[in-house]
From TrEMBL:
Organism expressing this protein natively: Penicillium cataractarum
SMART domains: GAL4 (SM00066), ZnF_C2H2 (SM00355)
C2H2-type domain boundaries: 22-52, 53-81
Keywords annotated in UniProt: DNA-binding, Metal-binding, Nucleus, Transcription, Transcription regulation, Zinc, Zinc-finger
Domain Zn(2)-C6 fungal-type: 88-117
PROSITE patterns the UniProt entry points to: ZINC_FINGER_C2H2_1, ZINC_FINGER_C2H2_2, ZN2_CY6_FUNGAL_1, ZN2_CY6_FUNGAL_2
UniProt name for this protein: C2H2 type zinc finger domain protein
Molecular function as annotated in GO: DNA binding; DNA-binding transcription factor activity, RNA polymerase II-specific; zinc ion binding
Transmembrane portions of the chain: none
GO biological process, one term: DNA-templated transcription
Domain of life per record: Eukaryota
Pfam families assigned to the protein according to its UniProt record, in alphabetical order: Fungal_trans, Zn_clus
UniProt xrefs under InterPro entries: XnlR_reg_dom, Zn2-C6_fun-type_DNA-bd_sf, Zn2Cys6_DnaBD, Znf_C2H2_sf, Znf_C2H2_type
Length: 227
């Protein structure tokens, strides 16, 4: 009988709820419980799914995860990467969580957060370039950033010096390292790192190449679906 009583919901009129009662905070629900764990159980069973299936971009409630996924793709132009297994969404990447793919992915649905696939290559490239020339602890963030930019420019210069004369894909006269698309710039950096011939730089180039490959395929999906 005790277990049965623990499931009883106290639907008390406004103003008559006991001072120590726990009230559900979900909009439109006035359920109250004598014990906090009973309220938690109620919220998990009754409202967690409702919250999870609310679009994180427009707050619209959807009936299923598949419906939510189609909604975000059609209404908010959120696209899935071509190879789900090789790229986590931005939320899972930041939280270091396993991403099963899909937009939104199940983990973002569970956490009720915005799900989007973004290019992580710029961050990864910066981290790998820094690792080739560790920043002294005495440098402040601005100096550290300057050191990275100088190193990046060094690899781009190497690209133009050695690779560009053979394959002049880029118009050097209008090239601006501060304005170029990240994928283009990081591709040039990877090539510049590789042709240095240095083992550490080539190892970093191969690692970044894998990330670029996935990101470029992702861009291809955008192009095809927008035709």
């Amino acid at each position: 009988m005790e277990s049965l009583g623990s499931e009883i919901c106290l639907q008390s009129p406004p103003g008559l709820v006991a001072h120590d009662a726990f009230r559900c905070q979900f909009p439109g629900c006035n359920a109250t419980y004598q014990r906090k764990e009973h309220l938690s159980r109620h919220e998990r069973s009754k409202h967690t799914k409702q919250q999870a299936l609310a679009c994180s971009r427009c707050s619209r409630n959807l009936k299923s995860s598949d419906t939510l996924r189609r909604h975000t793709q059609r209404q908010h132009q959120v696209k899935e990467p071509l190879n789900r297994a090789r790229q986590a969404c931005a939320g899972c990447h930041a939280a270091k969580s396993r991403c099963e793919g899909g937009v939104p992915c199940q983990e973002c649905v569970r956490r009720n957060v915005q799900c989007s696939f973004q290019d992580h290559t710029s961050i990864a490239a910066e981290q790998r370039i820094r690792s080739l020339n560790p920043t002294p602890p005495s440098l402040n963030p601005d100096q550290s950033r300057l050191s990275y930019c100088e190193k990046r420019k060094e690899f781009v210069d190497r690209y133009f010096e050695i690779f560009h004369p053979c394959w002049p894909f880029i118009h050097r006269g209008t090239f601006d390292i501060r304005q170029e698309p990240p994928l283009l710039l990081q591709s040039m950096v990877v090539i510049g790192m590789w042709i240095t011939g240095e083992t550490s730089a080539q190892s970093a180039a191969m690692e970044l190449y894998d990330k670029l490959d996935c990101a470029i395929r992702h861009q291809t999906v955008f192009h095809i679906t927008d035709l």
